[in-house]
Protein backbone atom coordinates (compact mmCIF):
# COMPACT_ATOMS: atom_id res chain seq x y z
CA UNK A 1 0.00 0.00 0.00
CA UNK A 2 1.46 3.32 -1.04
CA UNK A 3 1.38 6.46 1.11
CA UNK A 4 0.59 9.90 -0.31
CA UNK A 5 0.04 13.24 1.34
CA UNK A 6 -1.74 16.30 -0.03
CA UNK A 7 0.09 19.62 0.16
CA UNK A 8 -1.09 23.09 1.12
CA UNK A 9 -2.85 22.37 4.42
CA UNK A 10 -3.78 25.07 6.91
CA UNK A 11 -2.75 24.88 10.60
CA UNK A 12 -6.21 24.46 12.16
CA UNK A 13 -7.59 21.23 10.67
CA UNK A 14 -6.90 17.59 11.30
CA UNK A 15 -6.34 15.45 8.25
CA UNK A 16 -8.48 12.34 7.83
CA UNK A 17 -7.39 9.07 6.29
CA UNK A 18 -8.99 8.10 2.99
CA UNK A 19 -8.12 5.58 0.30
CA UNK A 20 -7.85 5.81 -3.45
CA UNK A 21 -9.19 2.61 -5.00
CA UNK A 22 -8.66 0.87 -8.34
CA UNK A 23 -10.48 -0.50 -10.21
CA UNK A 24 -13.28 1.93 -9.52
CA UNK A 25 -15.95 -0.65 -10.39
CA UNK A 26 -15.11 -2.55 -7.17
CA UNK A 27 -14.93 0.49 -4.87
CA UNK A 28 -18.41 0.10 -3.37
CA UNK A 29 -21.37 2.45 -3.48
CA UNK A 30 -19.94 5.65 -1.99
CA UNK A 31 -21.73 8.84 -0.95
CA UNK A 32 -25.13 9.22 -2.67
CA UNK A 33 -24.80 13.01 -2.43
CA UNK A 34 -22.24 12.85 -5.23
CA UNK A 35 -25.25 12.22 -7.49
CA UNK A 36 -28.07 14.05 -5.72
CA UNK A 37 -26.29 17.36 -5.04
CA UNK A 38 -25.26 17.68 -8.68
CA UNK A 39 -28.85 17.08 -9.82
CA UNK A 40 -30.19 19.57 -7.29
CA UNK A 41 -27.70 22.18 -8.50
CA UNK A 42 -28.86 21.43 -12.06
CA UNK A 43 -32.44 22.40 -11.23
CA UNK A 44 -33.89 18.97 -10.42
CA UNK A 45 -36.64 18.76 -7.80
CA UNK A 46 -35.96 16.81 -4.63
CA UNK A 47 -39.17 14.86 -3.91
CA UNK A 48 -37.67 12.81 -1.06
CA UNK A 49 -39.44 12.45 2.26
CA UNK A 50 -37.50 13.06 5.45
CA UNK A 51 -35.66 9.91 6.44
CA UNK A 52 -36.87 8.05 3.36
CA UNK A 53 -35.40 6.99 0.04
CA UNK A 54 -34.03 9.53 -2.42
CA UNK A 55 -36.50 10.66 -5.10
CA UNK A 56 -35.60 13.32 -7.66
CA UNK A 57 -37.42 14.63 -10.72
CA UNK A 58 -36.10 16.45 -13.77
CA UNK A 59 -37.20 20.07 -14.38
CA UNK A 60 -39.47 18.98 -17.26
CA UNK A 61 -40.81 16.04 -15.20
CA UNK A 62 -39.88 13.47 -17.83
CA UNK A 63 -37.26 11.59 -15.78
CA UNK A 64 -37.32 10.34 -12.21
CA UNK A 65 -34.42 8.98 -10.18
CA UNK A 66 -34.76 6.98 -6.98
CA UNK A 67 -32.25 5.42 -4.63
CA UNK A 68 -33.64 3.06 -2.01
CA UNK A 69 -31.23 1.23 0.33
CA UNK A 70 -34.05 0.01 2.60
CA UNK A 71 -35.39 -2.77 0.37
CA UNK A 72 -33.80 -5.84 -1.16
CA UNK A 73 -31.93 -5.82 -3.42
CA UNK A 74 -32.06 -2.01 -3.22
CA UNK A 75 -30.20 0.45 -5.39
CA UNK A 76 -30.95 2.95 -8.14
CA UNK A 77 -33.98 3.16 -10.43
CA UNK A 78 -34.02 5.69 -13.26
CA UNK A 79 -37.22 6.01 -15.26
CA UNK A 80 -37.85 8.07 -18.39
CA UNK A 81 -41.26 8.86 -19.85
CA UNK A 82 -41.99 8.21 -23.49
CA UNK A 83 -41.54 11.17 -25.82
CA UNK A 84 -41.71 11.74 -29.54
CA UNK A 85 -38.32 10.16 -30.25
CA UNK A 86 -38.14 7.42 -27.60
CA UNK A 87 -40.44 5.03 -25.81
CA UNK A 88 -40.60 4.65 -22.06
CA UNK A 89 -37.32 3.42 -20.59
CA UNK A 90 -35.71 2.53 -17.29
CA UNK A 91 -32.36 1.60 -15.78
CA UNK A 92 -31.79 -0.42 -12.62
CA UNK A 93 -28.41 -0.23 -10.89
CA UNK A 94 -27.38 -2.29 -7.87
CA UNK A 95 -26.76 -0.73 -4.49
CA UNK A 96 -22.99 -1.24 -4.69
CA UNK A 97 -22.67 0.51 -8.06
CA UNK A 98 -20.09 3.25 -7.37
CA UNK A 99 -21.70 6.69 -7.33
CA UNK A 100 -19.02 7.99 -9.69
CA UNK A 101 -20.23 5.49 -12.32
CA UNK A 102 -23.90 6.21 -11.59
CA UNK A 103 -23.12 9.90 -12.09
CA UNK A 104 -21.88 9.15 -15.59
CA UNK A 105 -25.49 8.46 -16.52
CA UNK A 106 -27.27 10.95 -14.24
CA UNK A 107 -24.95 13.86 -15.09
CA UNK A 108 -25.63 13.19 -18.79
CA UNK A 109 -29.36 13.67 -18.11
CA UNK A 110 -28.64 17.32 -17.28
CA UNK A 111 -26.74 18.08 -20.50
CA UNK A 112 -27.87 18.53 -24.12
CA UNK A 113 -27.26 15.54 -26.36
CA UNK A 114 -24.22 15.56 -28.59
CA UNK A 115 -24.84 15.79 -32.33
CA UNK A 116 -22.56 12.77 -32.79
CA UNK A 117 -24.04 9.28 -32.88
CA UNK A 118 -23.39 7.50 -29.55
CA UNK A 119 -21.09 4.48 -29.40
CA UNK A 120 -21.28 2.49 -26.17
CA UNK A 121 -18.25 0.36 -27.07
CA UNK A 122 -15.84 3.17 -27.96
CA UNK A 123 -14.83 4.17 -24.38
CA UNK A 124 -14.40 0.49 -23.49
CA UNK A 125 -12.17 -0.21 -26.47
CA UNK A 126 -10.11 2.90 -25.71
CA UNK A 127 -9.28 1.35 -22.33
CA UNK A 128 -8.39 -1.99 -23.98
CA UNK A 129 -11.47 -3.90 -22.93
CA UNK A 130 -11.83 -7.22 -24.74
CA UNK A 131 -14.87 -7.21 -27.07
CA UNK A 132 -16.33 -10.30 -28.72
CA UNK A 133 -19.49 -12.12 -29.75
CA UNK A 134 -20.88 -14.78 -27.42
CA UNK A 135 -23.60 -16.47 -29.42
CA UNK A 136 -26.14 -13.79 -30.30
CA UNK A 137 -24.79 -11.43 -27.61
CA UNK A 138 -21.96 -8.93 -27.85
CA UNK A 139 -19.69 -8.72 -24.82
CA UNK A 140 -16.91 -6.53 -23.45
CA UNK A 141 -14.81 -7.38 -20.40
CA UNK A 142 -12.25 -5.26 -18.58
CA UNK A 143 -8.55 -6.20 -18.82
CA UNK A 144 -8.64 -7.61 -15.25
CA UNK A 145 -11.92 -9.47 -16.00
CA UNK A 146 -13.72 -7.89 -13.02
CA UNK A 147 -16.25 -5.83 -15.02
CA UNK A 148 -18.34 -6.41 -18.12
CA UNK A 149 -20.86 -4.90 -20.51
CA UNK A 150 -23.15 -7.15 -22.52
CA UNK A 151 -25.66 -6.39 -25.26
CA UNK A 152 -28.37 -9.04 -25.20
CA UNK A 153 -31.07 -9.69 -27.75
CA UNK A 154 -34.02 -11.95 -27.02
CA UNK A 155 -35.64 -14.21 -29.65
CA UNK A 156 -38.44 -11.67 -30.12
CA UNK A 157 -35.89 -8.98 -31.02
CA UNK A 158 -35.99 -7.00 -27.76
CA UNK A 159 -32.54 -5.73 -26.79
CA UNK A 160 -31.15 -5.06 -23.33
CA UNK A 161 -27.86 -3.84 -21.90
CA UNK A 162 -26.51 -5.78 -18.93
CA UNK A 163 -23.41 -4.70 -17.05
CA UNK A 164 -21.71 -5.07 -13.70
CA UNK A 165 -18.61 -5.97 -11.73
CA UNK A 166 -17.64 -8.81 -9.41
CA UNK A 167 -14.53 -9.91 -7.56
CA UNK A 168 -13.40 -13.46 -6.79
CA UNK A 169 -15.19 -13.36 -3.43
CA UNK A 170 -18.52 -12.72 -5.19
CA UNK A 171 -18.82 -9.07 -4.11
CA UNK A 172 -20.11 -6.63 -6.69
CA UNK A 173 -23.16 -5.29 -8.48
CA UNK A 174 -25.14 -5.53 -11.70
CA UNK A 175 -27.14 -3.03 -13.75
CA UNK A 176 -29.48 -3.29 -16.70
CA UNK A 177 -30.98 -0.85 -19.18
CA UNK A 178 -34.25 -1.50 -21.00
CA UNK A 179 -34.35 -1.45 -24.83
CA UNK A 180 -35.49 2.17 -25.22
CA UNK A 181 -32.81 3.65 -22.96
CA UNK A 182 -31.18 6.46 -24.99
CA UNK A 183 -27.82 5.25 -26.21
CA UNK A 184 -25.96 8.43 -25.22
CA UNK A 185 -26.86 7.65 -21.60
CA UNK A 186 -25.53 4.10 -21.85
CA UNK A 187 -22.36 5.48 -23.43
CA UNK A 188 -21.95 8.01 -20.59
CA UNK A 189 -22.28 5.13 -18.13
CA UNK A 190 -19.74 2.96 -19.97
CA UNK A 191 -17.29 5.87 -20.12
CA UNK A 192 -17.23 6.17 -16.33
CA UNK A 193 -17.20 2.40 -15.88
CA UNK A 194 -14.10 2.08 -18.05
CA UNK A 195 -12.25 5.08 -16.63
CA UNK A 196 -8.88 4.08 -15.15
CA UNK A 197 -9.02 6.92 -12.60
CA UNK A 198 -9.26 5.74 -8.98
CA UNK A 199 -12.09 6.85 -6.69
CA UNK A 200 -11.78 7.81 -3.04
CA UNK A 201 -13.45 6.23 -0.02
CA UNK A 202 -13.08 7.08 3.68
CA UNK A 203 -11.48 4.70 6.14
CA UNK A 204 -13.92 1.96 7.07
CA UNK A 205 -15.63 2.07 3.66
CA UNK A 206 -13.01 0.17 1.69
CA UNK A 207 -14.32 -3.17 0.36
CA UNK A 208 -12.65 -6.35 1.54
CA UNK A 209 -11.49 -7.56 -1.83
CA UNK A 210 -8.28 -9.14 -3.01
CA UNK A 211 -8.76 -7.60 -6.45
CA UNK A 212 -8.54 -3.93 -5.56
CA UNK A 213 -5.47 -1.74 -5.18
CA UNK A 214 -5.48 0.99 -2.54
CA UNK A 215 -3.39 4.06 -1.75
CA UNK A 216 -3.66 5.74 1.64
CA UNK A 217 -4.13 9.51 1.42
CA UNK A 218 -4.51 12.16 4.12
CA UNK A 219 -7.22 14.68 3.30
CA UNK A 220 -8.59 17.65 5.21
CA UNK A 221 -12.35 18.18 5.54
CA UNK A 222 -11.99 21.56 3.84
CA UNK A 223 -10.39 19.89 0.84
CA UNK A 224 -13.24 17.40 0.52
CA UNK A 225 -15.72 20.25 0.80
CA UNK A 226 -13.89 22.27 -1.84
CA UNK A 227 -13.86 19.36 -4.31
CA UNK A 228 -17.56 18.72 -3.75
CA UNK A 229 -18.37 22.43 -4.08
CA UNK A 230 -16.45 22.67 -7.36
CA UNK A 231 -18.70 19.97 -8.84
CA UNK A 232 -21.84 21.75 -7.60
CA UNK A 233 -20.62 25.12 -8.86
CA UNK A 234 -20.01 23.64 -12.32
CA UNK A 235 -23.56 22.27 -12.37
CA UNK A 236 -25.04 25.63 -11.39
CA UNK A 237 -22.98 27.46 -14.00
CA UNK A 238 -24.07 25.08 -16.75
CA UNK A 239 -27.72 25.38 -15.68
CA UNK A 240 -27.53 29.17 -15.65
CA UNK A 241 -25.98 29.19 -19.12
CA UNK A 242 -28.70 26.91 -20.53
CA UNK A 243 -31.50 28.93 -18.95
CA UNK A 244 -30.00 32.18 -20.20
CA UNK A 245 -29.77 30.81 -23.74
CA UNK A 246 -33.42 29.73 -23.66
CA UNK A 247 -34.63 33.09 -22.40
CA UNK A 248 -32.70 35.04 -25.04
CA UNK A 249 -34.64 35.21 -28.29
CA UNK A 250 -33.20 37.22 -31.18
CA UNK A 251 -35.62 39.65 -32.84
CA UNK A 252 -36.58 38.72 -36.35
CA UNK A 253 -37.34 42.34 -37.31
CA UNK A 254 -36.61 45.73 -35.80
CA UNK A 255 -39.48 47.89 -34.62
CA UNK A 256 -39.65 51.34 -36.26
CA UNK A 257 -38.73 54.24 -34.04
CA UNK A 258 -41.68 56.44 -33.13
CA UNK A 259 -40.94 59.88 -31.64
CA UNK A 260 -42.83 61.18 -28.63
CA UNK A 261 -46.29 62.24 -29.65
CA UNK A 262 -46.73 59.32 -32.02
CA UNK A 263 -45.91 61.18 -35.26
CA UNK A 264 -43.31 59.77 -37.63
CA UNK A 265 -41.39 62.20 -39.82
CA UNK A 266 -39.63 61.61 -43.11
CA UNK A 267 -36.51 63.25 -44.41
TrEMBL record:
Stretches with biased composition (Low complexity):
238-260
Where is region (Disordered) located?
Answer: 238-267
All residue ranges annotated as the DUF317 domain in the record: 57-114, 141-199
InterPro entries in the cross-refs = DUF317_SPDY
What protein name does the entry list? DUF317 domain-containing protein
What species is given as this protein's source? Streptomyces cadmiisoli
